[in-house]
Amino acid sequence: MKVLVIGLGGVTNGGKTTLAEKLKNMLPNCDIISQDDFFKPESEVETDERGFKLYDVLDALYMDEMVTSICKWMKSPGSSGVVTEKPQNTCDNLKNVYILIVEGFLLYNYEPLNELWNRRYFLTLPYEECKRRRSTRVYQPADTPGYFDGHVWPMYLKYKKELEENASMQVDYLDGTKSQEELLSYVYSDIIKELNKLRE
């Protein structure tokens, strides 16, 4: 049995969840873990001097629990409730390969996760497009006025810069303004190449 752990990180509203769901439908034995499921309750999230809840930082998440969940899945992917029926277009020789897609906005800035990835993808968006998409979404708690410019976007730039400055980190940057079909086609082909390498 072999496992492949794929990171799908990047900007808020970049299309990570949609891409992860579409890949899951196309790949054999595929499961998703979403970072959004590891947010601390609002009462435990720090507030800065402007009154902004600091959600876009590692401290707002139970990252150790996330690592534990991923490691647990890697030890016994078959028992994780993952659907093991094969999509029509996959070859029989992938039966004992299990794929985990981990999607979230802060995947590669937390050291304990970095030894787990087989592939890392990072979706990017220009400022205007990201702000436009963010304004169409409803969050709990809701974004307060100035929150995107005062917290969300600066944190995205900070963490992205950290990644870019880490020479040892192999990250495949994806343009989130491309069509979902284009992104899906690119990432799917890339994962299939990885799967073929595993089989060799």
UniProtKB/TrEMBL annotation:
One of its GO terms (molecular function) is metal ion binding. CDD domains: NRK1 (cd02024). One of its GO terms (biological process) is pyridine nucleotide biosynthetic process. Pathway: Cofactor biosynthesis; NAD(+) biosynthesis. The keyword Transmembrane helix does not apply. GO terms for cellular component: cytosol. Keywords: ATP-binding, Kinase, Magnesium, Metal-binding, Nucleotide-binding, Pyridine nucleotide biosynthesis, Transferase. It catalyses: beta-D-ribosylnicotinate + ATP = nicotinate beta-D-ribonucleotide + ADP + H(+); beta-nicotinamide D-riboside + ATP = beta-nicotinamide D-ribonucleotide + ADP + H(+). Belongs to the uridine kinase family. NRK subfamily. This is NRK1 kinase. It comes from Ptilonorhynchus violaceus. The lineage of its organism: Eukaryota, Metazoa, Chordata, Craniata, Vertebrata. The gene is Nmrk1.
